[in-house]
Amino acid sequence: MLLIILGLVLWAGAHFLKRVAPDVRARMGNGGKAVLGAVTVLGIVLMVLGYRGAEQVDLWYPPAFMVHINNTLMLLAFYLYAASGMKTVITRKIRHPQLTAVKTWAVAHLLVNGDLAAVLLFGGLLAWAVVQVIVVNRAEPQWTKNPPVPAAKEVMAVVGAVVVMAVVMGIHNWFGVQPWG
Questions:
Q1: pLDDT tens-digit readout, 135-168
Q2: CB count in 10 Å sphere of residue 83
């Protein structure tokens, strides 16, 4: 559990630095991006190792049908993330599609994992994403919506989401986690 917590701290610290301590981030210059990138990757590695090595402490037993809700939410999360890069229609309605994707991803995983490590990991990332939205909105209260884009970008975002979801589910299978239900 300690590795999960340390990973969450590194992840959140790297992401909050720009908003919480902009002077520190500015002094880091372009090299700071590499440092913060490395800290972020280290945070992810620690979270994964901590989660995979955590003792199984069940808090509740999710019903089987939650897998289908999880998979639907995961497709939405992948779409939101893809849409953020392509500036599709949804990005004109949702200010923070990537953070919304993280929140959707976290909720989806909380629905199908009733153990303490999952609550710590996915709940921690959900809390980070919620606070990150608040911090960004306070720092930049004005929001300029993206201009409309061609429908082809929407199709590309949907297809990309489906492809990435299939790859991620394959990786889950490789690690011994059956995401298909």
A1: 999 989 999 888 888 889 999 999 999 999 999 9
A2: 26
Tell me how far apart the alpha carbons of residues 146 and 59 are, in angstroms, rounded to a whole number.
Answer: 42
Distance of CA 149 to the CA centre of its chain: 25
List the Cα angle 160/82/18 in 5-degree steps: 150
Computed on alpha carbons and rounded to an integer, the radius of gyration of the chain in Å comes to 18
pLDDT at 100: 98
Domain locations in the chain? Answer: 1-54, 56-181
CA gap 60, 51 in Å, rounded? 17
pLDDT above 70 coverage of the chain, percent: 99
Instruction: Give pLDDT, residue 181.
Output: 66
Map residue 30 onto helix, strand or coil.
Answer: coil
| pTM assigned to the model | 0.91
Cβ–Cβ < 8 Å for 51, 118:
yes
Cα torsion 70, 81, 175, 34: sign:
negative
Q: Token digits for 120?
A: 């710590």
User: Which one-letter amino acid corresponds to residue 145?
Assistant: K
Dist CA 3 CA 23 (whole Å): 29
**Are the CB atoms for 129 and 103 separated by under 8 Å?**
yes
Average pLDDT, the chain: 93
